[in-house]
Structures are given as structure tokens and as C-alpha cells.
Automatic annotation (TrEMBL):
Protein name: Periplasmic protein
Pfam family, one: His_Phos_2
Keyword Metal-binding (UniProt): no
The UniProt record lists the keyword Protein biosynthesis: no
Keywords: Membrane, Transmembrane, Transmembrane helix
Organism expressing this protein natively: Chrysochromulina tobinii
InterPro entries in UniProt: His_Pase_clade-2, His_PPase_superfam
Residues spanning the membrane: 581-606
Length: 658
């Protein structure tokens, strides 16, 4: 069939009139016809037609590699017509590089050379261009915290009759082990994640408008950002991009720090009390324990709990079991809220997973295979669920969610919105930005992801983990996209996580190796995402001036974004080179407009509200070994708008609680 002749119903093909195919279909795997695709991604086209088959693409996409099954007697898997057609295959990968506003897939098939050609109903997808992406990462694998009421995560403890592995087994120094820094596998995982993001986005990573921000009070988050940069950026720009990493602290970045701290407490906005925590599960702690009795008892058997002395401490008989321990509410233990069976079993389950994913041989004393370990880990995940209930999430992440919404709002409006104050993201002298997506990568903790999950009321699941797990190295991503057809803004939310086996094997996450798991939990118009997020935020828990921005968005006091224009829908869809620079500055809160707008308000950010990092019992002891000297050097660029720095220093000197 000549390449110039399209597959069209009621035209003469092979000496007969072609007809519509009402029995078989051509489609894209995982996409509904009439749906969308992202420019540059790889799709899979498939058909269930019998006989001799030809698949055809229009709109700029091309076939790259076909596969066949035994039903097809003639199969070569080779594309023709400059990649727009492929013969006698059941499926083929499709490149969307160079695709236009829409791509369309059809098939034609015939059972003989003299019969009619049956042509399928067209399957059309509309291109979405990713304009901005926010990736919120949990750090890589770390050494464990000490067990409950203990001071060391190595050796013997009151809960276990067998010693936990020493620092040497983790290939860590005792100092790094006790400070809960990244394990060697944790370093590698974050490099692999950076490489995966770079490969997914395509093009030259050095030309990306990317800013990396880490919790400046956590050295492992800074390590994670550095390793991510090492994987994401090539040699020619990795040093400069690593130097640009921002270590956000309450004193250096007062509006940004609560986004990456895992327990930023804003004055006047406290976490839940016992009744509010119990309301998450109906209040019956015994029932909650019974629901997880099997994995709790399995952990108890592994560790040999409980000793006669532990039983005596709780006024129990000498042969008590782990599930029999009483559960006591501890309001300051925001990561679990209850001492007792859940806390102890959850701790050891997580410690075993950290051993396994860090490559320890053996892990869990060699008595638990990976598939069973995933089941035991449910206890830890349930404990995390307790710590990330609605009230906790509103108290500790309302500011973070407001910040992310405001960041996206600035891109949609192509104008500054008060309350977003990222540091400088493009060093002076660097070439002007090209029309590439804006990338904000945040390096934080598991609770940062879980709080946002609860506020947005979304769920996910990836390989080897239970529902809504936030494993090491996982990321919660919000991608702001725009339709090439009508200019509609959409937000796509995904959770990306390497499986336990991938983390343990330490293999890359790009071809020819398997990619990490990816769950799409959100795909809605931007206006719907914004409304959902704003309704979930507790404005009392948001610092000014961001708090006023939230109120203005809810009340409609901010003027609506301008409608799509022909210019916006032109080259690069939505962002010419100049517009990208402005939008990039607004996403990151810099540029002359944003700076001028924020100059007068950042100085008052702490006059009405203050933020500090709460204590964490044993977690605090692990972090307390770090002082400011850990973060003052190492090439981290903590540069901010000069007015913001002056305001923060002035506020601190006046005795404000930071």
C-alpha cells in the first residue's frame, strides 16, 4: 500500500472498497481514546485485529519497535513510511517526540488479497505539555533510629534477645550511623532517581530550569539532594547545580522551610490531642492492635519479646507477649502517638526493611524473606497512618500545600503571587532559559508525603509496598500540564517508588533496567486541584503573606488568570523563551516583579506567626549531634532576597522563637 494513500473508509484499497471495522480495535495501552499524552513520552500502540494487519499513525508520532504473537503468520516488526506505519504486528512502541497537538492511531486488516480492508475507529490522544513539575522526595535509605526508650540502634536492647547489626555491617562509620545519615545504598538510590528524572524529561538536563531544596536541619536530606543532582546532571553542569542546592531552615528561608521540615510547628497551630487521634480509628486501641496481631506477634517472635523485665515494667506476667503490652498515648510522639505493641513492632519492621533495602546480609537475622517482610512492614505503615491523620496533616502541612498551590498559581497567571519566596535559582551569567519545564525538587521526609496525601485525599500503591506507603527515595509529584488543543491547565499527581528488590539490588532505574513503580493518583483540571487543596488547608497554620494569598484565592479577591491566547498556544505551547523566564522566576519566587512584591512583606513574616522544629525524643537525640557547622559549607547556596535575609536576621535577634 502506497505511503501517500491514507487508511480511510470507503476508499479503494487492494481493488476493493474499504469498510469500517466494528469487531476489533486499535488503541494505546493504558490510555483511553480521547485522552491525553505528554510530549516526549513513549506509548505502546496495540491492535486485536486478525489477518494481515497494518497500523497507521498520524500527527507526528512514529512507530519504533513492533512485537508479534503466534496468530500472525507474517511478522517482521519493522516500521515503514518514515515510521508512520507498521505491518503485521500486534503492538509497537511509539515515540511522541515531534508530535503535534493530537496523534491518531488506526489499523487496517484483511483476510485475503481480494476481500475488503477493515479499518478501525480512530483512536486520538491530545498532547499535554508539562510546564512545571514539583517533586517532593523522601530521603534515601538511612541507618535506623534507636528502638523505643533506647539510645542505640546497634547491639542488644530491652526488646530483643538478639543484637541489632553494628555500624560496620552497614558499611558506615559509627558517627554517620549514629547520626542516621544515608547508607551506601541510600546514596546510590538517590543518584538513580536523579538519572531516572533526567531520562524521563529528555533533552539536555543542564538546560532545565531546576531548583533543588532540602531540609537544612537534616544532613541526610542534603545528602539526598546532592546525590540526586549527581544522577540528574552531566559532568559539565553538575558542580554548579550542586552548589545551587538550597538548605532551607526557619532562619534562612522562613517561608520555604515549613515545606521540607517534617514537623514544622507554627505558633498558634497545634497538633491533635488524644481524642482527635483516636477519632482516626474509632478510639479502640485494642481493636487496632488485634487487627494487626499476626504481624505484631511475628515480630515479637523474631526479637524474642518480651523479657521478664519488660513484662514486669508493665505489670504483666513473666511470659507476656508483644501484643499484650499496654498502649499509652504520647502526644509529643507525632510519628506514632501511642507507645506499645504498634510502636515496638513498627520500629523493628522498619529496621528490618532498612536492613534489606540497604543490602545487609542477612537482614532480619536471615529469617524473613522479602515477600514476608512486606507484610510485616504493614505495622510500620499503620503507625505512620496514625501519625498522619487529618488534624496532624492540617497542622503540619497546611503551609506546605499552600506553598505548592501558590507556586503553580504563579505559573498559570504568569504573574507573582505573594508568599512564594524561593532563593535565586539561576546564577547570574547563565544563559537565558529555553522553553523547558520548570522543575522544583524538594528533599524531605516520609511524613511530608503522607501529610499531603491526607490533605489531598488521594491513595497509591506500588510494587512490594502496601497502600499509601512512603518508602525511602519515593517522590510525590505534581505536574502542571497544558493541552495543545484548548490550552486547558491540568495537574497530574503521581507517586514514584523503587521496590524493595530494586533498592536492595542497587541497580539503575533506567533502560535496560526496570523503572521504578509509578502510581497516578490525580489527573484533574488545575482549577479543581486548586479548589480541593485550598479547602483542605487550615489558614491558621499558614505563615503570612501566604496565608493572605490563600484567603484571597478562596474568596476570589485575586483576579482570575487570563484566558489562553494564540501566542500562549504557539511555540513550545505556553512558554516562549521570554515567558519561560518570567514563569520560572514566578514559580521559584524570584525575578524583579516577585522580589519587588515580596520586599515589603517578608520582613513581617514572623511578626504575627513563628515557626520552630519540635522535639522528637530519640529522633531528636539523633539529629542533635548535628550543629550549624554541618550546613554552613559544602557548596550549598543559601542565597535569598537580601531583604528577606535581613528580615529573618532581625526577627531572630529580637528573640523570636525559630
Amino acid at each position: 500500500m502506497n505511503c501517500s494513500q491514507p487508511l480511510t473508509v470507503n476508499t479503494t484499497i487492494m481493488f476493493a472498497k474499504s469498510v469500517s471495522d466494528f469487531q476489533s480495535t486499535a488503541s494505546f495501552v493504558g490510555r483511553a481514546c480521547g485522552g491525553t499524552f505528554t510530549a516526549g513520552e513513549t506509548l505502546v500502540a496495540t491492535t486485536n485485529a486478525p489477518g494481515q494487519i497494518l497500523m497507521e499513525l498520524t500527527g507526528g508520532a512514529t512507530f519504533t519497535r513492533g512485537t508479534c504473537n503466534s496468530r500472525l503468520s507474517r511478522c517482521n516488526g519493522l516500521s515503514t513510511c518514515n515510521g508512520t506505519r507498521i505491518n503485521n504486528v500486534n503492538s509497537s512502541t511509539v515515540s511522541t517526540t515531534g508530535a503535534g497537538a493530537t496523534i491518531t492511531l488506526k489499523h487496517g486488516w484483511a483476510s485475503s488479497s481480494t476481500g475488503p480492508v477493515f479499518i478501525s475507529t480512530p483512536c486520538t490522544l491530545t498532547r499535554l505539555t508539562t510546564v512545571a513539575a514539583i517533586h517532593l522526595y523522601r530521603h534515601g535509605q538511612r541507618s535506623p533510629y534507636p528502638p523505643p526508650h533506647e539510645s542505640s540502634a546497634a547491639g542488644y536492647n530491652q526488646w530483643s534477645t538478639r543484637p541489632l547489626p553494628p555500624a560496620a555491617d552497614w558499611n558506615m562509620t559509627p558517627t554517620d550511623f549514629n547520626r542516621n545519615l544515608l547508607t551506601p545504598n541510600g546514596h546510590a538510590l538517590m543518584r538513580h532517581m536523579g538519572e531516572f528524572i533526567a531520562r524521563s524529561m529528555g533533552g539536555d538536563p543542564c538546560s532545565l530550569h531546576a531548583l533543588l531544596v532540602a531540609d537544612g536541619l537534616s544532613q541526610r536530606d542534603l545528602q539526598s539532594a546532592q546525590e540526586f543532582a549527581a544522577g540528574m546532571f552531566p559532568t559539565e553542569c553538575v558542580a554548579a547545580r550542586t552548589a545551587d542546592i538550597v538548605a532551607a531552615t526557619p532562619s534562612s528561608s522562613p517561608l520555604l522551610a515549613p515545606v521540607v521540615l517534617d514537623h514544622a510547628v507554627i505558633e498558634g497551630c497545634s497538633g491533635p490531642d488524644e481524642d482527635e487521634v483516636r477519632a482516626n480509628f474509632g478510639g479502640d486501641v485494642a481493636a487496632l492492635t488485634n487487627a494487626l496481631r499476626q504481624p505484631i506477634e511475628r515480630v515479637g517472635t523474631l526479637i524474642g519479646c518480651c523479657s521478664a523485665s519488660v513484662c514486669a515494667q508493665h505489670a504483666l506476667g513473666p511470659n507476656c507477649t508483644l501484643s499484650e503490652l499496654p498502649a499509652t498515648f504520647q502526644r509529643t510522639h507525632y510519628w506514632e502517638y501511642f507507645d506499645g505493641p504498634l510502636a515496638v513492632a513498627g520500629y523493628f519492621a522498619e529496621a528490618f526493611v532498612l536492613q534489606a533495602t540497604s543490602g545487609l546480609e542477612p537482614f532480619a537475622w536471615g529469617e524473613v524473606p522479602l515477600d514476608e517482610l512486606a507484610q510485616l512492614y504493614r505495622v510500620h505503615e499503620r503507625m505512620m497512618w496514625l501519625g498522619s491523620g487529618r488534624n496532624s496533616s492540617r497542622a503540619y502541612a497546611s503551609h506546605a500545600l499552600a506553598y505548592l498551590v501558590a507556586s503553580l498559581e504563579q505559573v498559570v497567571r504568569d504573574a507573582p503571587v505573594p508568599g512564594v519566596a524561593h532563593p535565586s535559582w539561576r546564577p547570574s551569567g547563565r544563559a537565558p532559559p529555553s522553553p523547558r519545564p520548570l522543575v522544583l525538587a524538594l528533599f524531605a521526609h516520609d511524613f511530608n508525603l503522607l501529610y499531603l496525601r491526607r490533605l489531598l485525599d488521594v491513595h497509591w500503591v506500588t510494587e512490594s509496598f502496601d497502600l499509601d506507603a512512603a518508602t525511602t527515595g519515593s517522590s510525590l509529584s505534581l505536574e502542571l500540564t497544558r493541552s495543545a488543543l484548548d490550552g486547558e491547565w491540568r495537574v497530574v499527581g503521581t507517586l514514584t517508588a523503587a521496590s524493595m528488590a530494586q533498592q536492595r539490588s542497587n541497580l539503575p532505574l533506567v533502560h535496560p533496567h526496570a523503572p521504578p513503580g509509578r502510581a497516578t493518583f490525580l489527573d484533574v483540571p488545575y482549577t479543581e486541584f486548586r479548589a480541593r487543596a485550598l479547602q483542605a488547608i487550615d489558614q491558621r497554620c499558614v505563615l503570612e503573606p501566604l496565608r493572605s494569598t490563600v484567603a484571597a484565592l478562596l474568596s476570589g479577591d485575586l483576579s482570575p488568570p487570563p484566558p489562553p491566547s494564540d501566542q500562549v498556544l504557539g511555540t513550545a505551547l505556553g512558554l516562549s523563551t521570554g515567558a519561560a523566564a518570567v514563569a520560572g522566576a514566578c514559580l521559584l519566587g524570584v525575578g524583579c516583579l516577585c522580589g519587588a512584591l515580596l520586599l515589603g512583606v517578608l520582613g513581617n513574616a514572623f511578626s504575627s506567626r513563628k515557626v520552630h522544629q519540635s522535639s522528637k525524643s530519640s529522633k531528636t537525640r539523633a539529629e542533635a549531634a548535628m550543629d550549624d557547622s554541618d550546613f554552613g559549607g559544602g557548596g550549598f547556596n543559601m542565597e535569598m532576597n537580601e531583604a528577606a535575609i535581613a528580615a529573618a536576621k532581625s526577627s531572630h535577634k529580637k528573640g523570636d522563637a525559630i
